[in-house]
User: Fold this.
Amino acid sequence: MNALKIFSGNSNIPLAEKIAEYLGTRLGQSRFTRFPDSEIMVKVEEDVRGCDIFVIQSICDPVNEHLMELLIFIDCMRRASAQRITAVIPYFGYARQDRKDEGRVPITAKLVANLISTAGADRVLTIDLHAAQVQGFFDIPVDHLLAEPVISFYLKSLKLNGSLILVSPDVGNVKRAKGYAQRFNVELAIIDKRRISGTDTVMENIIGNVKDKTVLMVDDLIATAGTVCNAANLCMERGAKTIYVGATHPLLCGPAVERLTAAPIKSLIVTDTIPLSTTAKENLPNINVLTISDLLGEAIRRIHRNESVSNLFLTG
Ligand code: R5P
Assistant:
């Protein structure tokens, strides 16, 4: 394979820089500008002909801007004769729209997958898709990593006292939570969640006993934080001692920071797939951001060398 080059969109430059550092290289030179009507223009400022290109971009807020940047970047690389283009998407936005759950609604996750392939990506590297099945929306190879080894490693380093229990704040997340429960060799409890709007949920029952336990609650993402905050309150009502929350993607939108500030959560552990807002940094002293740069960097190194990435799932 020809020379490896790493480029970044504007969504998460600090993460892209760390990945480049892990790989012992620097980010490729590119320049984003705007036309007067706000259309995005990208110019790649170094030769990429015949290169193995990795474009790093999270599809996070502002979601449509970042998605469009990614598509334009890929198109640019294709037309500049890159040999292979991998879209590295630490946070894959729109993945929650992955099925028709009522009449006359789109499956936007599939549309986004089509757009990325049509733009010219040869493969995708991502972490903790909302639903693993979204991989199947692509007809190109998708390497789907899990942040679980990174988050579990950190949680284990805390050497938590007392009896632990893993809690999934909803049924859809059980498979992910089971992975953590196996790693910790502890029981799994599941909360019966009903979503009543984009920002609100109702939770009345826990399948499992959290009384006097240290709760480790895990989810793929925190958006408005209704899910984890309601779940934490319910666990406390049912007698839990302490609550730790681990979530891969800190979207933290709308009322999230306010809700998290008031929630009975001792420590909130997230990763840097999405950069934290200043408001979140200033108001959430209990948040710990773990970097997934080494995980992504190692996956990129292996993809470049045509080596297996599957044993990255076992680290931590
Ligand atoms: C739901 O299926 C997801 O795993 C998350 O629990 C959910 O999207 C989080 O959203 P929010 O933080 O707005 O409750």
Remarks:
- Residues 63-79 form the longest helix (17 residues).
